[in-house]
Amino acid sequence: MPVGRLCSLAATLLLGLLLPGLLMATGSGKPGVCPQLPVDRNCTKIDKCQADGDCAENLKCCQGDCGRVCSPPNEKPGICPSVDLPQLGICEDQCQQDSQCNGVMKCCRNGCGKVSCVTPNFSAPPPLA
Fold this sequence. Notes:
Blueprint: H1 3-25, E1 60-64, E2 67-71, E3 106-109, E4 115-118
Pfam families: WAP (PF00095)
GO molecular function: serine-type endopeptidase inhibitor activity
Keywords: Protease inhibitor, Signal
């Protein structure tokens, strides 16, 4: 197989691996991260939403034991930075909510469909603690 075709094939495979993560990171979701919802094993599984856009105001569509529900997000000040390319390395959730991140760091999408603690962008200086 010629080197040019091999490189083209490798580039296509790499793009196929990276593109789904990019699409998930650039979705039209609302800011913030879903909270850890209370455990409820005695319920009928019913999805009350499919996406953040189905929820009023700033509520997010979050997965619970009984299905997807609209819930207020856990959120610190600041805006999660945009992700141009997925992070390289281990693709796993490192946090579930902003309160699990040190200092002013926020729990944000990292580009591979997971979340990690990152330094947010501030349109105004953060409040002094």
